[in-house]
Amino acid sequence: MIALNVNGEERNVDVPEDMPLLWVLRDVIGLTGTKFGCGIAQCGACTVQLDGRPVRSCVLPVASVGARKVTTIEAIGTTPAGKKIQDAWLDLEVIQCGYCQSGQIMSASALLDRNPAPSDRDIDAAMSGNICRCGTYTRIRAAIKQAAKA
Amino acid sequence: MSKPSSSPTTATSRRAFLQGGGLLLGFALFGAGIKPVLAASTAQPVDGDVTAAFAPDAFIRIGTDGLITLILPNIEMGQGTHTGEATLIAEELEVGLDQVKAVDAPPNDKLYATAALGGQATGGSTSMRATWEPLRKAGATARMMLIAAAAAEWSVPAGECVARLGVVTHQPTGRQLAYGALADAAARQPVPSQVTLKDPKDFQLIGKSSRRLDTPGKVNGAVKYGIDIRVPDMKVATVAACPVLGGKLGDVDDRAARAVPGVRDIVRLDNAVAVIGDHFWAAKKGLEALDISWVDGANANLASANIMAALKAASERKKPIMARQEGDVDGRMKAAATKVEATYELPFLAHAPMEPINCVVHVRPDECEIWVGTQVPAIAQGLAAQVTGLPLDKVILHNQLIGGGFGRRLVAESVAQAAAIAKQVSYPVKVIWTREEDIQHDLYRPAYYDRISAGLGADGLPTVWVDHVAGGSVLGNYIPGGWPEDKLDDDAVEGAAKPPYDLPVIQVDWVREDPPVPITWWRGVGPTHNVFVVESFMDELAHAAGKDPVEYRRTLTRNQPRAAGVLELAAEKSGWSTPLAAGMGRGISLHDAFGSYMAAVLEISVSPAGEITLHRAVVAVDCGITINPNTVEAQIEGGLIFGLSAALYSGITFTDGRVDQSNFHDYRILRNNEAPKIEIYHVKSSESPGGIGETATVSAAPALANAIFAATGKRLRTLPFNRDALKTDGADKKSVSMIPPLAAPIAAALASVKPADTELEKL
């Protein structure tokens, strides 16, 4: 059994130690908001936060999570930065297919949480690991800036 | 979205109307002869239907509880179609978009076919064009019946009643009845034989940037895509098909795989093997533990160079199929003061939607239930029926929200594969392809080899234009039974046959050379290919004539008012004639495709190492009446970036019959830090709506090619653009564009998490 703290809840999961956190969340716990995109930390669709820092859950062995608190898209709206990002995302109609947006929002809210006024360079650094195949990048940038002002 | 439910319900009060209201579309991807009619009537209930007291047609359900459900013929995959189609109905039904619930239509080729696509399908930028009239008529008809019911209830003339926001009001007395209260009575009203649609000046919703219906659940993980479906007792499978395209499965030693904890079953198919486990990780570990031998087959030695060589040979030797021939082509070419010729090469392209291919199937002895996001629900249903041997009406398909389609989900071969896997076990199976499987077993946008030439007169303008297209037939690979060898596939020359220019002497032909790999539709397939050639070459002609590229196009669009309109707007807004710094360049592209006109100007710079930076894009669009300006702009932004990704990075190549690329590290997608600023300007238009989902994808590569030429003087005629060709003499840096950036979050993850095994070290 591996103990996890996911979105404030204690969970015990009976899974192999090398199983990536992504599949524990999706297939065992049933939190499907975190997405599978590439499996090799290239696209960012699987981004979750560990103690507020964005990580790629598709390559993160569940045994390495330890006592760190896991936050997923389902609970990011309970954080101040997450709520601001979600509101800006809807206000600017950032989203198209939406499949990558869980990851985008997790990366963006982690950025905003540690940097309340990110520059374009900060946004480049924080967001270039999240691919959007629909091409919503210009709106993502605008929405982060809007959220920073909210 | 359709709810995962096994119990199809029955429509109670379906009415026949809109009979004979067939669409006459000015385009036909599938040629003449296939004319299913959107909004055909039927008395037959369909599986998965939504029931309600008032169900006047296939699209509208109003319950006595006031719940208004709109059943939309086209699926939502991010393009905003649900919002757009709901807008058309709501405009005439006189309800707000916040008063309706949008659901996907169940599979039914009779009720929900898109005429231009020859079946129930979402693609080709056809949705809004196809539904523009019928969905407004559906809304207006239902509204008239609701008003008639209220007028009868009050014994007043219908002309004294108005409908607004789901309520009918008797104007002289102020009496009101909500739609829910009228639903039963409306169902008993005769269907009006004549409906009058609103004058555009009275539109309340059309033309406004209404909020999207599908996005609130996409910011908090609440919405479910196909890949998120979980049904009781479900297991998860992942699959490996023969890496050599067209090859078969040989022997499989599965002893090690069966020992992997959580692995349940190993399933063999003709050309693939699947491992089923308690979760995806078990399935994936199991698949990796298989010892598989493949039977490579005819493609064992296939290489990209051979495919391009075959295309070139076919282009030069095979008799072409004529798409257009006007005027004395040979005579004009001989008499030309200057002759310009060029050859362009385009690669195979994968779709790589963010949501990997997936499908949940439960095959039971007497029926098959499927949960999948598909652009072609009726085709998917038919394939599953074939594979399982069950009658069509025993295959229940729940269409799901799609995490990106781009043409990939216009084919349903993966649904057939999932059904073939699921029929070998008793429990429901969710098949998920890895990204590697997705890239290496896609059906690709074809490669092309095009020879184009023009004769210029003394004034530098083209007196004759000849475009020889060579490539595979997408239609031939798509339609069951294929496409006649000697018949033109319009898609192959779409965007080439009718450039929006005054070119009185013109020849456009096509040599069909089908590649030995599967090909299919891709975002804007025909125009995306052809307009790259046409607009790059138009730029070449302008430079050969010593003219400014915008001025040259201006002269050639004197009789093309809509093309001239977007050209002027883009030139003006981009500041076309203002000077740029050294190393920078502007390129323009102009086209007419999918019923819309677009001009795009890209502003870029090229470094001595050949690195391209995209600074700014200015796009002018005339897409007719704009149903939702915000959606149009979103599609232009996204479509442009999709096209820029392809132009800069994408190309599928083959070695020994295997696809060389495998994931986003070597099939690169443009990233946020690489995207240009994008400005969009609308030409006001009262024409019927044009398509917009693919329009800007078409603009990207030619605008970029022309900008590269402007910045460097180098003409790149092969996609994706080769940065090495742009290096300044003496610059010895290896191009770094193909290496994706190590994103800060990954670095942060590495810094904060102790790597527990080698997985993390790979980063």
Automatic annotation (TrEMBL), chain A:
Transmembrane segments: none annotated. It holds the Pfam family Fer2_2. InterPro entries: 2Fe-2S-bd, 2Fe-2S-bd_dom_sf, 2Fe-2S_ferredoxin-like_sf, 2Fe-2S_ferredoxin-type, 2Fe2S_fd_BS, Beta-grasp_dom_sf, Diverse_Oxidoreductases. Keywords: 2Fe-2S, Iron, Iron-sulfur, Metal-binding, Oxidoreductase. One of its GO terms (molecular function) is 2 iron, 2 sulfur cluster binding. Residues 1-76 form the 2Fe-2S ferredoxin-type domain. The keyword Acetylation does not apply. The keyword Iron applies. This is (2Fe-2S)-binding protein. It comes from Phyllobacterium myrsinacearum. The lineage of its organism: Bacteria, Pseudomonadati, Pseudomonadota, Alphaproteobacteria, Hyphomicrobiales.
From TrEMBL, chain B:
Pfam families: MoCoBD_1, MoCoBD_2. It comes from the Bacteria. Residues 220-298 form the Aldehyde oxidase/xanthine dehydrogenase a/b hammerhead domain. Gene3D superfamilies: Aldehyde oxidase/xanthine dehydrogenase, molybdopterin binding domain. GO terms for molecular function: oxidoreductase activity. PANTHER family: ALDEHYDE DEHYDROGENASE. This is Aldehyde dehydrogenase.
